[in-house]
Amino acid sequence: MIQRMSAEKIKNAAKSKIVVLLGARQVGKTTLLKSLFDSDSLLWLNGDEIDVQNLFETISAERFKAYLGTKKIVVIDEAQRISNIGLRLKVLADSLPDIQVYATGSSSFDLANNVNEPLTGRKREFRLFPLSFAELVNHSDLLTEKRMLSHRLVFGSYPEVVTSQGNEIEILKELSQSYLYKDILTFEKIRRSDRLVKVLQALAWQIGSRVSYSELAQTCSMDAKTVEHYISILEQAFIVFRLGAFSRNLRNELKNSRKVYFYDNGIRNAIIANFSPIENRSDAGALWENYVISERIKKIACEGSFVNNWFWRTKEQQEVDYLEERDGKLCAYEFKWSDSSAKKARIPLSFSRAYPEAGFSVISPQNVETFLL
């Protein structure tokens, strides 16, 4: 088993609080929790099962104690399937203070929304992602993982994908379909799944580029508000995330623009059905940008750091791929897949003049560990 960097934090979370573990399906939430605790001390409840849902409909402290017996840890897997889960967890927290409760969810549609108010001050929330660069380096070594970068850019880093070499395409096809049809369509009650697929495919073709809701609406034959709503849904399902535009000093800076990235390259490539080797692709630079930024997001989340991040672009199309502000210091980054492009990369003059205090780095496969470890 590949060790997850957040494992100890999750295991040692304060026992007075309910631990909420969010993440897409198949990122390893169940495997992680089962690895942390002795099965003899653990009561495992699957929220996908009807009898578990019925149990929580009529929950009481006395009835739950009967189910627990001598066990001291409860895991409620796929807890978003249980109605009013926040109030149900509050009953457990108030009535059984000596019991440690873990709730997992593969979407934030209901779970995050329904636990926030009832469990104010009673919970700790963690996010689990596909395997990170750091986790894979710790599992093997830096040289091995850097040699695998071309593979990761095409197939991504889902645990089953990483551990099932030779079967990556079949696994990713199944994963991409379960994203669309099991969680999103269920929770949002979307009847026209083809419209959501169109939006997702359009986003997949635009990684690394600015996204216009109105242009996407024309491409997908729907209105801009619906497109924005669908992107929000995809974000809540941990498929994509948005990066906004940075603007402070210059009139010609784009202020209301955004880019959309995928949390996993393999899912992105499954959406457009393209698993060609990176050497034969015209989108290698965009895949590298998506990979490095998504890996950076994983790193920040695992550290628990508070970081602001954006991209920067002017109306004259001068651009910086990624900006980060940490402890008041602004850093600019360019991402280049090829060594020749990395050597030629320079910070835009208008940016350096407007923000002379900002640092600048070019991240390529040669030095990626300085950015991701």
* Lateral strand order in the biggest sheet: 2-3-4-1-5
Which ranges are low-confidence, i.e. pLDDT below 50, for 5 or more consecutive residues?
none
What does the main sheet amount to? 5 strands, parallel
User: Could you tell me the strand content as a percent range?
Assistant: 15-25%
Amount of helix: 40-55%
Provide key terms for this protein:
four-stranded mixed sheet; 17% strand; five-stranded parallel sheet; 373 residues; alpha/beta
Structural write-up:
With 373 residues, the protein is of the alpha/beta class. The chain has helices spanning 7-11, 29-36, 50-57, 61-68, 85-95, 111-116, 133-139, 142-147, 149-155, 159-163, 168-188, 193-205, 213-220, 224-236, 265-271, 284-303, 339-344, 349-354, 369-372; strands at residues 18-22, 42-46, 73-77, 100-105, 123-127, 240-244, 258-262, 308-313, 319-326, 329-335, 359-363. The chain has a 5-stranded parallel beta sheet with strand order 2-3-4-1-5, sandwiched between helices. A hairpin with a 5-residue loop joins β8 and β9. α9 crosses α15 and α13 packs across α14 (224-236). It is globular, with a radius of gyration of 22 Å. The two termini are 20 Å apart.
